[in-house]
Amino acid sequence: MFEDVSFLASMIDLLIPGSGSGKAIMAAVLLGASCGLLGCFVVLRRVALMGDAVSHAVLPGVVAGLIYSAERSPGVIFLFAAAAGLLGACLVRLMMFSTRLKSDAALGIVLATFFAFGIMWQSRNQQDTVGVMNFLFGNIGSIDASDLRMMLVTTLILVVTMFFLRRPLLMMSFDEGFSRGLGYPVKILNGVFYFLLTFSVVVALQAVGVVLVSAMLITPAAAAYLLTDRFERMLILSVVFGVASGISGGLVSAEVNGLPTGPVIALSATLLFGIIYLLAPRHGVLSKVARTLRRGMRVRRENTLKAIYQIHEGEGFAHEEVSVLMLARKRGQTEEKVNKDCKALLSRGFIEMAEDGVSLHLSRLGWKRAMEIVRNHRLWELYLTNEADYAEDHVHEDAEKIEHILEPGIVRQLEQHLDFPELDPHGKPIPQPAHLVTQSSVVPS
After folding, report:
1. Domain at 238, CATH number
2. Rounded-to-integer distance, Cα 172 and Cα 189, Å
3. Which of 266, 310, 319, 429 has the highest count of CB atoms within 10 angstroms of its CB?
4. How far apart are CA 5 and CA 13, in angstroms?
């Protein structure tokens, strides 16, 4: 057994680079891997404050390790810090289950108490706790081979454990009751999760410090969460973002004198999150704004098509063309704005302009879409009056909104439920599905 341990230790030593910059880069990689993996579960379980509480709770352990370890052994400091973090997590859980306090109150009490005690203890033993600032604010350049060895071992333990427990932990992240019903030992798994959380915090201590370690637990995972709905992909992206933030922050901190490592790494992660927050294809702010604008333009175009249909309907479908002036009056808009809408419809093949440039007629595609909108509107009005007991004069506004988003399947269900009606609540005809195929059934030849 001892031969196996020594062989493993020698293999780990081979992985550790010799140069200071190499150690810093490897430390950043380990930091990103450990925090990125566990951060996904922290974000999904909505226990971000627990990470913050554990990170502050380890400070008394760090101080104890510096005081009681004459050689400042990373293993001793790690053990004391892990013990303090686990004690903090247990106290939070105990307060939640034994009192009326909610999680945020229990977390706040533990966070403040442990951190205050650690600061007070360090102040009383300043000579024995030289270097504690590296643990408070992080200094990736101060990591030596023994520190890196400890980080590598703990990261490997965390990664292997997460690999085998990812499914039950994921189940618990969404519904503990359902997980209990599947036979998972929820209490034991919760204990394992907080144990791993403490491990992850301790791994990140010397890189980003006690104060900012929660940023590396939350920010890369939150950025990954904005990019994908698949958990496996979220894990990979979170690790990549964590590693990128650690390396970039560490390099900037090393190049610029006076910049502490922890804040720079945290800001690097935040900068990456900010870019994704703005530019993410589905959940980014700019993409949401773009979708809202596109939706608004589509609704305006469809309202214009509906207005053209209503003009034809009011004339008994006696004419094929509608003047821009008539359309402007119907829409209650200026001719300039209607012309702009008509250009958009023309570019999409919904209308065709007459040679005089002041009148237009619907194309085959335009007739189909206009009748779909009118049909959706009138079916919804009838549904509200028949099934929801809406007054006839109170249904128009709701139908104006819903007509643009009704899916064909929902429309078919509405027709079946209403027994394929022909008239809306106001006595106006509802365009039938057969009419949507061609304009010949509506416009006289």
Report:
1. 1.10.3470.10
2. 9
3. 266
4. 12
Q: Collapse the DSSP code of 443 into the 3-class scheme (helix H, G, I; strand E, B; otherwise coil) and give the result.
A: coil
Residue among 243, 248, 270 nearest 259 (CA): 248
Nearest one of 367, 2, 44 to 222, comparing CA atoms: 44
Enter the pTM of the model. 0.76
Q: Give yes or no for a contact between 197 and 51, defined as CB atoms under 8 angstroms apart.
A: yes
SS3 423: strand
The edge-to-edge listing of strands for the beta sheet with 351-353 is 322-323, 359-362, 351-353
DSSP-based helix, strand, coil % in the chain, nearest 5: 75, 0, 20
Among residues 232, 264, 281, which one ends one of the domains? 281
Domain ranges, residue 167 = 2-281
In this structure, are 77 and 128 located in the same domain?
yes
Coil, helix or strand at residue 368: helix
DSSP string of 253-264, one letter each residue? HHHSTT--HHHH
Distance (Å, whole) CA 162 – CA 228: 20
Question: Is the Cβ–Cβ distance between 43 and 170 less than 8 Å?
Answer: no
Residue 74 φ then ψ, to 5°: -60, -30
- Looking at the structure, tell me whether residues 253 and 335 fall in a common domain: no
Q: What is the pLDDT along the chain (445 residues), one digit of tens a residue?
A: 434 444 444 544 444 555 556 777 788 888 888 888 888 998 888 888 888 888 888 889 888 888 887 677 777 888 888 899 889 888 988 898 888 888 888 888 988 899 899 889 888 887 777 777 777 777 776 777 777 887 888 888 888 888 888 888 888 888 888 888 888 888 888 888 888 888 888 877 777 777 778 888 899 999 999 999 898 899 999 999 999 998 888 888 778 777 777 788 889 999 999 999 999 998 899 999 999 999 999 999 999 999 999 999 988 888 888 998 999 999 998 888 988 989 999 999 999 988 887 889 899 899 999 999 999 999 999 999 988 888 887 888 888 888 998 888 999 999 899 888 988 888 899 987 655 544 444 443 3
b/e code 344-355 from CB counts within 10 Å (16+ = b):
ebeeeebbebee
Total of domains in the chain: 2
Q: In this structure, are 114 and 206 located in the same domain? A: yes
